[in-house]
Amino acid sequence: MNDDINQLERFLDQGANQIIQLFITVLIIGGTMLFVAPKIALFAFFPIPIIFLGSIKFQRKLAPKYRDVRNKAGLLASRLNNNLSGILTIKSFTKEKWELNRLNKESLDYQRSNKAAIKLSSAFIPLIRFAILFAFIAILLIGGFQTWNKTLDVGTYSFLVFITQRLLWPLTTLGHVLDDFQRSMASIDRVIDLIDTPIKIKDGKIKIEVKDIKGEIIFNNVNFNYPGRDLTLKNINFKIENNSTLGIVGLTGSGKSTIIKLLLRIYDSNNGLITLDGVSIKEINLRDLRKCISLVSQETYLFHGSVQENIAYGSINPSLKDIVKASKIAEAHKFIEQLPDGYKTIVGERGQRLSGGQRQRIALARAVLKDAPILILDEATASVDNETEALIQKSLSKITKERTTIVIAHRLSTIKNADNIVVIDKGKIVESGKHEKLLDQNKIYADLWNVQVGI
Ligand SMILES: Nc1ncnc2c1ncn2[C@@H]1O[C@H](COP(=O)(O)OP(=O)(O)OP(=O)(O)O)[C@@H](O)[C@H]1O
Ligand SMILES: [Mg+2]
Q1: Which of 196-219 are b and which e, b meaning 16 or more Cβ less than 10 Å from the residue's Cβ?
Q2: 84-93, 170-179, 181-190, 312-321: least confident range
Q3: What is the CATH number of domain 210-453?
Q4: CATH number of the domain at 2-196, out of 1.20.1560.10, 3.30.420.140, 2.10.70.10, 3.30.10.20?
Q5: For residues 415 and 384, what is the distance between their CA atoms, to the nearest angstrom?
Q6: What predicted TM-score, i.e. pTM, was given to this entire model?
Q7: Mean pLDDT to the nearest integer, 53-74
Q8: Which residue minimizes the CA distance to atom 30 of ligand 1?
Q9: Mutate-to-test residue for ligand 1 from 223, 226, 377, highest number of ligand atoms within 8 A of CB
Q10: How many A from CA of 258 to the centre of ligand 1?
């Protein structure tokens, strides 16, 4: 996309300017010629329709070629981007050579499709020059004969020769300008395609105030599938009373994180109803809905910037005191203080200068600081050690009492104390109840628990 915009910039920077100059040249000099020697002037205009007809014809043939060039450039750029962010994997699997070959191949593809386009466009520019040369010679000859026969003044003839050059030679640049224009059109198409991509999630009309939200969440017969996949969630029903905690357990890939994505309306459910305080979330203003939810997602993401900026990310101008308080709840304060610049330490792109567990605790502090009526912890403590996790649990217990909380965890000790636990298996809720009840049932949950406590 960046490259497409650059292409457009190149055209607007020079091409657009040249077109304006050409237009004014043709207008003024062409007008003067028509005035001085109308019959001869017609020859000067002869190349202009050829140039336009030619460019329309070439445009049709060139457009798909230039589109292909832009697509290949896009592929190459995204490959580079992917390689840079996956550098640790590439190095650890010693795939440098293999990646280099792949990159080379894509680079050659780009070169090849550019060659094909240039082959065609380079036939276009000589065509224009040829038409211009023809007009030029015609004016020289016809004007020359007329002067010979004394039907044209010598003075007028020399003026014509001089002015024809002023008119026609600038026209030769038109070939390049039109070529640039066609390249830009391919770029514009791609940009517009993206802008025109319909936004599937429609915003709701009901405005809500975060402070008025109690946090009762109901999933009623919710079904969902990702595009082109089988049903991921089947007939999901549960209710979370306000200020209570729901634990979600299930094997990997069973659909736990998907439930969260539906609640946040990253995707919409196929059918069924999800409500917040009795109102369908599809009716609620999207920003308002998301303001009500503090999420620590499974893949923690930190932005390039300081620790403090990252924690403050979801809140409006929080004080340092509040930031420290949230960090203490997330058991992050101690390690942050030990970083070289404390809260001002830069975390690097995606937080790569911190450890996995440190990143996770900063993400947790960020969610705690947001102080929303609904808190969602999707494997939020999976990367920290057991001891730290127990400390986090303890400090979180106070704030989870005051809000609706959803906790997803493989480590069952994390959700043991939840008010209700649902067990998901292949997209279906197969068990639900409190920890003790589920143990008594002696089914999936009990099996998972026994494995973890080592029975
Ligand atoms: N964006 C997506 N497009 C298509 N399929 C997806 C997408 N995200 C997840 N899935 C599929 O949906 C299923 C449920 O994924 P989900 O992330 O909800 O699992 P999970 O229960 O959170 O697993 P885990 O414990 O590993 O986090 C998986 O089979 C997964 O392959
Ligand atoms: Mg998940």
Answers
A1: eeeeeeeebeeebeeeebebbbbb
A2: 170-179
A3: 3.40.50.300
A4: 1.20.1560.10
A5: 15
A6: 0.79
A7: 86
A8: 253
A9: 226
A10: 6
